[in-house]
Each structure stands twice: as structure tokens, then as C-alpha cells.
């Protein structure tokens, strides 16, 4: 019984202690001319869907939820955003070569169509980012016109 109390106390100390571990905010000034939405000027509905379902993880402008102030959630989100931006950064899309832009567009269309994006781990907490089949088809059809 005494070992159990010590274990709980240690866990509490660790959970409280990690609250002071700093994370970096994903808010960066970028050239708006390189932003995907500026470059391709999608219809308003598609732009809204892309902003809602993609931009938090794949741009330089994350809208953070309240629970990002709690560790270890903030560390998890920071890592998730860093990894997402490595694969695709919509804020810097115009900086990609033409060949890479086409490749990214094809990948986006494929992953949206297959339901691989947005990730389930994201849509569980962000219900408005959970795209319907019709929204997926609409986005894919629009992206297909840009490839």
C-alpha cells in the first residue's frame, strides 16, 4: 500500500513539473504570396474547408485550443505540427518548385479521397474538421483541376 502512495505522489510531481516545459507557438510571419489559398484562390467553401481541416497542422498559423496549455498535450501537439509541416506547409507552398507543387497536389487529393487526412486523432477533438464524403469529393475535384 505504501508503494502505491509513493508511485501516485511521483506521478503527480512529474505531471505538475512538466507544466513548466516550454513549447513553441506555430505563429510565424510569412509571405502571403506563397500561401496556398492566396496562390490558388479556391472558392470560399473550399478555402474554409482547407483552413478548418488542414491549416492547423500544415501551415505557419495554428489556432490553438485551450487544452494546448496543458502538458504533455502541448508537447504532443507541437511534435504533430512540426511533422505535418515537414510533409506539407501550405503557408510556404509557393516556395516549392513547380514539380514539387504538382506532387503535393496529387498527394493531397489522394489522401483526402482515401480519408487519410485529416487524421482521426485530429478530428476526434475538432469535429468541424471531419470532412463528409461530399466535402472530400468536392475538394478532390477542385484540386484535380489544379494538377
TrEMBL record:
It comes from the Bacteria. SMART domains: Haem_bd. The keyword Metal-binding applies. Keywords: Heme, Iron, Metal-binding. It holds the Pfam family Haem_bd. Residues 28-147 form the Cytochrome c domain. InterPro entries: Cyt_c-like_dom, Haem-bd. The keyword Iron applies. GO terms for molecular function: electron transfer activity; heme binding; metal ion binding. This is Heme-binding protein. It comes from Persicitalea jodogahamensis.
Amino acid at each position: 500500500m505504501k508503494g502505491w502512495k509513493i508511485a501516485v505522489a511521483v506521478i503527480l510531481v512529474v505531471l505538475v513539473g512538466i507544466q513548466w516545459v516550454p513549447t513553441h507557438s506555430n505563429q510565424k510571419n510569412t509571405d502571403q504570396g506563397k500561401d496556398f489559398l492566396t496562390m490558388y484562390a479556391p472558392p470560399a467553401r473550399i478555402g474554409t474547408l482547407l483552413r478548418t481541416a488542414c491549416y492547423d497542422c500544415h501551415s505557419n498559423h495554428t489556432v490553438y485550443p485551450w487544452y494546448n496549455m496543458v502538458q504533455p498535450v502541448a508537447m504532443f501537439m507541437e511534435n504533430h505540427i512540426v511533422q505535418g509541416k515537414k510533409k506539407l506547409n501550405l503557408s510556404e507552398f509557393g516556395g516549392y518548385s513547380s514539380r514539387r507543387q504538382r506532387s503535393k497536389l496529387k498527394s493531397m487529393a489522394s489522401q483526402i479521397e482515401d480519408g487519410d487526412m485529416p487524421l482521426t486523432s485530429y478530428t476526434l477533438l475538432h469535429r468541424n474538421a471531419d470532412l463528409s464524403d461530399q466535402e472530400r469529393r468536392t475538394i478532390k475535384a477542385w484540386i484535380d483541376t489544379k494538377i
